[in-house]
Specification:
Blueprint lengths: L2 E4 L5 H12 L3 E6 L6 H8 L5 E5 L5 H11 L6 E4 L10 E2 L2 E2 L1 H28 L4 E5 L14 H21 L5 E6 L16 H14 L9 E2 L8
Parallel strand pairs: 1-2, 1-4, 2-3, 4-7, 7-8, 8-9
Antiparallel strand pairs: 5-6
Helix pairs in contact: 1-6, 3-4, 4-5
């Protein structure tokens, strides 16, 4: 049995990762901003005989992250998955129309947010057996992605990729595996039905990739298939 912490667990890929890990018998700390409003997540928790518990955490708020860390205490964490993310919509993050407040918010949630979480929970990860940290990123953050981008979202994902490679270098000698990971273009509330794959397929691939990661992978931008993503 592994112990897994997942941010952004109320819906989409995060919820499906929680479901699959709990179904496999793992201990899951599921975090989200508003547990009281996370109807599906609460129903899932009720069906797991205590293997999955829900904890309030807003990754954009340092005090909230620290409060969540105190609630979980010194429990060793084998796998930490930074999944929390937002999408402000394409219309307000293009060259002709940039919402700078939204840009700052997306950077706060998706670049600074994972860094905050890792800072708070690194002692737990170091105490774990697997010592794996995965941050859900996006192909839009790669220079190799040559399509139209939402500048706020893509720059936040590019930033978090670089943060993860930096942390991978810093913590390699302590045996921590840190990887940014593209989960595919997933049919979530964020992307809609125009996307390519289901949350179930994405989460299953993410779990397989995490299970197979070794220290040789640290700092590598991976896909949900386990392949290296060009960057």
């Amino acid at each position: 049995m592994n112990t897994v912490l997942i941010t952004g667990s109320a819906r989409g890929i995060g919820f499906e990762l929680c479901r699959q890990y709990a179904e496999a018998g793992d201990r899951v700390f599921a975090t989200c901003r508003s547990p009281a409003n996370a109807t599906r997540l609460n129903a899932l928790a009720a069906s797991t005989a205590g293997r999955l518990t829900i904890h309030a955490m807003d990754v954009a708020d340092s005090a909230s992250v620290k409060t969540c860390r105190r609630s979980i205490g010194d429990t060793p964490i084998d796998v930490l998955i930074n999944n929390a993310g937002i999408w402000g919509g394409l219309a307000t993050q293009v060259f002709a129309n940039m919402d700078y407040d939204n840009w700052a918010h997306e950077l706060n949630v998706m670049a600074m947010g994972p860094f905050r979480v890792i800072q708070a929970f690194m002692p737990n990860v170091l105490a774990g057996q697997q010592k794996k940290i995965v941050t859900i990123s996006s192909q839009t953050g790669a220079h190799a992605y040559d399509h139209v981008i939402g500048y706020s979202y893509a720059s936040a994902k590019a930033a978090v990729n670089r943060l993860m490679t930096g942390l991978a270098t810093e913590f390699r000698d302590r045996g921590v595996i840190i990887v940014p990971l593209h989960p595919g273009w997933v049919k979530t509330e964020m992307a809609g039905d125009v996307a390519d794959i289901s949350p179930e397929e994405s989460a299953a691939g993410v779990r397989r990739t995490i299970a197979g990661m070794t220290l040789a992978d640290t700092g590598t931008f991976l896909k949900w298939t386990g392949d290296i993503h060009p960057w």
